[in-house]
Amino acid sequence: MAEKILVVDDDKDTLRLVGLMLQRQGFEVRAANTGLQALSLAQTDLPDLILLDIMMPDLDGYEVARRLRANPTTSEVPIIMFTAKTQVDDKVAGFEAGADDYLTKPTQPRELFAHMRAVLARSSKRGGGSTPAGEKGYMVGVVSARGGLGATTLALNLGISLREAFKKDVIVAEFRPGQGTISLDLGYQKPEGLNHLLAKKPNEVSVSDIENELTTHASGMQLLLASNQPRDGQLQTAVANFEAIAHQLPYMARYVILDLGPSITPITDKVVKFCDEVIVVVEPVPQTILQTKALIHDLISGGVGEKKITLVLVNRIRSGVQLSWSQVQEKIGHNITVIFTPAPELAYQASEQRLPIVLMQPDSLTAQQFSKLAERIAQSSR
């Protein structure tokens, strides 16, 4: 996937020119023309590198760099000061504020690209700490308006479908301390991997730490399991740790599925910005539809692009009183991507044998529906 570059400059002509040059080099570009806008964008749409001007009307580049370094979410993002200030004292101040490199204007595009690639390469090769390494994968959050709609079942079976179909590394992570159910569904004892990571300081959570807490399923998929003990629900306050984990996970697998649970918790509110796509699970019941419409509105208001939202309809029971898929789509105002037909007997058998549905009956209609969703995710990630 293309590296994401945040360009920060109060000169709109510079933003446009540099943005075009970077796009032609294959980078994905974001732009900010004030320091405050830069801080907001870096927080909600984490870039791989920031090109930062110094002279701006609200916050200068030094202050922006200091605030980026003080924020656990953005503390490890590489920064290149790209400015017309050429004095040695200016450069020293830039490095002291947290810049990884300092480049003065005007400069030739080749020199700019060389500095960027060098900084990106150094960033990807750092060991330890919270700096991720490797190619960035595709991360999908799964959320519902309320509990009991099958979001966890969807996350687990989607992960296995991706693994089976494309033979790529897949991680399914439960971001629900005290409410984990995958360990119960699959028969794992004492799921404490997530708890161990939440006990660390946020800036100490590294890729190797996360790897040590992953459980490998027989399918080859890896799991970051949440505790199923209610007392561990208090760990939901460790929001900065969840941000640190979410920042690392896309660099550890081609596909990452996050089970975010119901509603917009403080965890979901912070973590969803790391997701390339958000699957919203809904059932065809009037009250749930109203809640789901509000959920989608809140996600969009919180900075999740409408195009990132995928609506999935799950029919859990056979009933003539439920609404049709077209009625659900019309009431919510968002297209439904995949419809899951009722399969209560299959779900019961899978639970009894502690097998995911798609492995219990790989030729079933339900497995085919998961395969369709996995194919859609794969196409979006290309």
Name its key features.
382 residues, alpha/beta, Rossmann fold, 2 domains, five-stranded parallel sheet, 16 helices, elongated
Question: In words, what does this structure look like?
Answer:
The structure is a single chain. With 382 residues, the chain is an alpha/beta fold. It folds into 2 domains: 4-125, Response regulator (Rossmann fold), CATH 3.40.50; 138-381, 3-Layer(aba) Sandwich (Rossmann fold). Helices cover 43% and strands 17% of the residues. It is built from 16 helices and 13 strands. Helix 2 (35-44) packs parallel to helix 3 (61-70) and helix 6 (151-166) packs across helix 16. The longest helix is centred in the first third of the chain and has 17 residues, at 109-125. The model is unreliable at 126-133 (pLDDT under 50).
Mean pLDDT: 90
Q: Would you tell me the structural class of the helices and strands? A: alpha/beta
Q: What is the CATH top level name of the largest domain?
A: Alpha Beta
Radius of gyration: 22 Å
Overall number of strands: 13
Order of helices and strands: EHEHEHEHEHEHEHHHEEHEHEHEHEHHH
Distance between the termini: 7 Å
* Proportion in β-strands: 15-25%
What is the domain total for the residues? 2
Low-confidence runs: 126-133
Question: In order across it, which strands form the biggest sheet?
Answer: 8-9-7-10-6-11-12-13
Oligomer status: single chain
Shape, per Cα inertia axes: elongated
How much helix, percentage-wise, in residues? 40-55%
Number of helices: 16
CATH superfamily of the largest domain: P-loop containing nucleotide triphosphate hydrolases
- For the record, the CATH architecture of the largest domain stands as 3-Layer(aba) Sandwich
